[in-house]
Specification:
It comes from Novosphingobium colocasiae. This is Alpha/beta hydrolase. InterPro entries: AB_hydrolase_fold. The structure is a single chain. The protein is of the alpha/beta class and 224 residues long. The chain has two domains: 159 residues, Rossmann fold, CATH 3.40.50; 56 residues, no CATH class. It is built from seven helices and nine strands. Helix 1 crosses helix 7 and helix 4 packs across helix 5. The protein has a seven-stranded mixed β-sheet, with helices on both faces. A two-stranded antiparallel ribbon has the order 7-8.
């Protein structure tokens, strides 16, 4: 596994270099992985990389690109919108020659539509935002402040909002709230993997059995 960069399109034209983790041996089957989003991405990062290692051992190349404004990206998150993220994943797929795609949780909303693939535990944008709004309300309460979801939602529609430390612009928030995963991807439910989802944990964790199960499901499909 090595880091690499790829040319990500900018909203006003031009390109920025973004990072990706890759297992690349020039093999025929090449999987683009669109990561889980925000805090769920942190909790699922180890699982994602563990799955990539197992797929590499099964003869499958993998690439895990950063979304603009996330992880090592130097682009400001608050200036992104959902079309930027979709364009970025299409560009990453093209650059790395991906033949298939895997979306993880909220990443399922941004898998390139032209690639066959899988959605692991897909979730709607509105559900992610509800969780993030709830976390902010609870955090404010613990700090002695009163906030409620309706007023925060109204603020987000007007000026954007910071949720769990992530500054989301007004346009992103409004667009993201309406997004749902594509219906033509093959869904891998958590019950198919076993155990509870690692995104439910308070801190990032790992689960080798879940990584084995997810990688095996993907390898069977990719080698079919």
């Amino acid at each position: 596994m090595v880091p690499a960069t790829w040319p990500c399109p900018l909203p006003g034209g031009g390109q920025a270099r973004e990072y990706a983790l890759i297992f690349d041996h020039g093999r025929e089957t090449r999987l683009l992985i669109v990561p889980a989003l925000f805090d769920e991405g942190n909790r699922l990062r180890r699982l994602t990389v563990d799955v990539m290692r197992r797929l590499d051992g099964a003869g499958i190349d993998c690439v895990l690109p950063d979304l603009p404004g996330c992880n090592e990206s130097l682009q400001p998150l608050e200036f992104q919108d959902t079309a930027d993220w979709l364009d970025a994943m299409v560009a990453a797929a093209r650059h790395f020659g991906a033949t298939h795609a895997l979306g993880i949780r909220g990443g399922c909303l941004f898998t390139p539509g032209h690639l066959p693939g899988w959605h692991y535990a897909p979730v709607k944008g509105s559900a992610i935002l509800r969780q993030m709004l709830r976390a902010r309300v609870l955090s404010a309460r613990e700090a002695g402040r009163e906030e409620d979801r309706d007023s925060l939602d109204a603020l987000a529609h007007e000026d954007g909002i910071v949720l769990a430390g992530y500054p989301l612009g007004r346009d992103f928030y409004m667009q993201f709230a309406t997004m749902a995963p594509q219906a033509d991807a093959t869904v891998i439910a958590q019950d198919d993997i076993g155990g509870s989802g690692l995104w439910l944990r308070a801190e990032p964790g790992e689960n080798p059995k879940q990584a084995d199960a997810l990688a095996a499901t993907l390898a069977i499909g990719l080698n079919a």
